[in-house]
């Protein structure tokens, strides 16, 4: 990991960038969480690294954009993957982009998630922080020409394979609340995501019905104390 | 200047507190404690509140050294909570408001915890972990409301702890969670338990079922009660800290606040503190006086509402067993 530079701390891992075999590479290190009992920490970390690498490979196979995977180092708790130099998170994009671009993006998110769920990949941690907007032409520019952008899914540590409407519905619900809790106009953004999701799934309206059911669970729960 | 009195009785704690612009004048409380192995039920809890409410009220007024005519607003917990205990306390609040000729305000219990936490700790715009017997929510403030970013998908963490205490027949005094915490300090071995996190949501029913089915066997296999308490805490708190961290990152927040009855657990606070240090955030937590359900938090949140101009008609001063944190517009917050 020498010559790699720490660039940020995500929701779980430390992110380094550098060169590996001559390619711009990102190392995602799930460092030791000192608050966790050591055995539990070790166990969870390994599970997540494995889940993330498996899901990335599976996405690649079905044509969903994810970073290419370069190396798995379980001992050092690291994943080496393709680094997108010219990228921002969907969260950052939405904070700055025009309404028109936000609508386009919402639609593309819905279509991508539809494809992911059609292939029974459950992301497990869908948020606008875990979707990257990449300029395919290597320009540091995101707000001028939408056609130059592509959408890349990242952070698959909680991913798994499941064909149930339940898990897919929960996946969407996690995203909905992530949007509600930080973005303006969440109804519009999530509404467009669902619209595109519906259009791009075959007979999976039961996922939307599940989503409604999952939403109600929280509202119906009796709480005491 | 606003002086507010608050009545809380949504669960097994009965509390009455008086606050004057953030200055605590009194904060009195009694708890309905059930025998080991038993939980509290609505009817008996309501009876406990009815039998004690006047004594607690007297204490709260005496301790505050104010004259009731100086009170500006009477506040009570509108919900969420158990119907019968909520109604019992609401009736008393309604009665004194009429006797003293004061306006009445119904306060959301969760908002009470959050606003109390903010004023006591000085946190400005924290990401909040609200953990109690009935609630487990990760909350962020956005567009004038406290938004639920993540929550339990089944039972609350406090409920999980309480029911585990019943399996071991631990005492419910002063609270089951407290007794688990003390035993856990002496635990040495950690049993592997189900660990269930979905994005920013958590689930505890798997862990509880596991304990219900296996506790007796584990005890026979050489694990002690202390070990089981330790294992349970290490697992459920790790889940809470993990989802809190995820919310913190997603909201670009540098302040983390823990509120609610489970929030006074020192091991939970310690774990959260380590997480915060590892990412340059600051932890805000309070002790049992303010964490555990109390009347003061209702008085304080009610005073904030009152100052921002909120008034309620008598016919709206009802109770709600289900009352979501995001149902309330935080008119008193300027950001
Ligand atoms: N392949 C990548 N190229 C460029 N930036 C990335 C890449 N992967 C992650 N990032 C950045 O790092 C952040 C954290 O990565 P992520 O995989 O989501 O880890 P965590 O689990 O810690 O959230 C992302 O929000 C994004 O800003
Ligand atoms: Mg992430």
Structural commentary:
The complex is a heterodimer of chains A (225) and B (335). Chain A has 225 residues and is an alpha+beta fold. Chain A has two domains: 5-82, Phosphorylase Kinase, domain 1; 87-224, Orthogonal Bundle (Transferase(Phosphotransferase), domain 1). Helices cover 43% and strands 20% of the residues of chain A. A five-stranded antiparallel β-sheet of chain A has the order 1-2-3-5-4, covered by helices on one side. Chain A is globular and about 50 Å long. The mean pLDDT of chain A is 94. Chain B has 335 residues and is of the alpha/beta class. The model of chain B has no long low-confidence stretch (mean pLDDT 96). Chain B has two domains: 3-114 and 293-327, Nucleotidyltransferase, domain 5 (2-Layer Sandwich); 125-289, Nucleotidyltransferase, domain 5, CATH 3.30.420. Chain B has ten helices and twelve strands. The longest helix of chain B is centred in the last third of the chain and has 26 residues, at 225-250. In chain B, helix 1 packs parallel to helix 2 (83-100). Chain B is globular. The interface between A and B is large, with 38 and 55 residues. Magnesium ion binds at residues 10-11, 129-130, 155 of chain A.
Would you summarize the structure shown here?
Chain A: Component of the EKC/KEOPS complex composed of at least GON7, TP53RK, TPRKB, OSGEP and LAGE3; the whole complex dimerizes. The complex is a heterodimer of chains A (225) and B (335). Chain A has 225 residues and is of the alpha+beta class.
């Amino acid at each position: 990991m020498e010559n790699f530079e720490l660039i940020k701390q995500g929701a779980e891992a430390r992110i380094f960038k550098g060169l590996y075999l001559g390619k711009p590479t990102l190392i995602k290190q799930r460092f030791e969480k000192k608050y966790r009992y050591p055995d539990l920490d070790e166990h969870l970390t390994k599970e997540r690294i494995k889940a993330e690498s498996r899901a990335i490979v599976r996405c690649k196979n079905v044509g969903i954009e994810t970073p290419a995977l370069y190396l798995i180092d379980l001992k050092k708790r690291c994943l080496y993957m393709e680094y997108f130099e010219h990228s921002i998170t969907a969260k950052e994009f939405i904070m700055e982009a025009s309404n028109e671009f936000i609508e386009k993006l919402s639609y593309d998110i819905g279509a991508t998630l539809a494809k992911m769920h059609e292939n029974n990949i459950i992301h497990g941690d869908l948020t606008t922080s875990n979707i990257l907007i990449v300029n395919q032409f290597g320009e540091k520019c995101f707000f001028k020409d939408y056609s130059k952008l592509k959408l890349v899914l990242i952070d698959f540590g909680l991913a798994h394979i499941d064909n149930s409407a339940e898990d897919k519905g929960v996946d969407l619900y996690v995203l909905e609340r992530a949007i509600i809790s930080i973005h303006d106009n969440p109804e519009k953004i999530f509404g467009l995501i669902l619209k595109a999701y519906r259009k791009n799934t075959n007979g999976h309206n039961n996922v939307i019905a599940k989503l409604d059911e999952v939403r109600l669970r929280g509202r119906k729960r009796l709480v005491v104390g | 200047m606003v002086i507010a009195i608050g009545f809380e009785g949504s669960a097994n704690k009965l509390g009455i507190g008086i606050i004057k612009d953030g200055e605590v004048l009194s904060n009195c409380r009694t708890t309905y404690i059930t025998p080991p192995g038993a939980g509290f039920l609505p009817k008996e809890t309501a009876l406990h509140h009815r039998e004690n409410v006047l004594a607690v009220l007297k204490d709260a007024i005496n301790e505050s050294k104010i004259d009731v005519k100086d009170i500006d607003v009477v506040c009570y917990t509108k919900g969420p909570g158990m119907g019968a205990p909520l109604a019992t306390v609401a009736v008393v609040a309604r009665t004194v408001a009429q006797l003293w000729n004061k306006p009445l305000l119904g306060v959301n219990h969760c908002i009470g915890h959050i606003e109390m936490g903010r004023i006591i700790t000085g946190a400005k715009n924290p990401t909040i972990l609200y953990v109690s017997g009935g609630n487990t929510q990760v909350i962020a403030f956005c567009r004038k409301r406290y938004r639920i970013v993540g929550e339990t998908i089944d039972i609350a963490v406090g409920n999980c702890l309480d029911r585990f205490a019943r399996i071991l027949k631990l005492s419910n005094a002063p609270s089951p969670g407290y007794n688990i915490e003390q035993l856990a300090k002496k635990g040495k071995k950690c049993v592997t338990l189900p660990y269930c996190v979905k994005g920013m949501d958590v689930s505890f029913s798997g862990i509880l079922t596991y304990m219900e089915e296996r506790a007796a066997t584990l005890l026979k296999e050489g694990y002690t009660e202390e070990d089981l308490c330790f294992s349970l805490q290490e697992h459920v708190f790790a889940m809470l800290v993990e989802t809190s961290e995820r919310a913190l990152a997603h909201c670009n927040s540098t302040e983390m606040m823990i509120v609610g009855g489970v929030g006074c657990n020192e091991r939970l606070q310690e774990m959260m503190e380590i997480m915060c240090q590892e990412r340059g955030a600051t932890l805000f937590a309070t002790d049992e006086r303010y964490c555990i359900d109390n009347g003061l938090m209702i008085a304080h949140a009610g005073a904030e509402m009152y100052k921002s101009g909120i008034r309620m008609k008598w016919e709206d001063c009802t109770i709600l067993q289900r009352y979501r944190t995001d149902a309330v517009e935080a008119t008193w917050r300027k950001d």
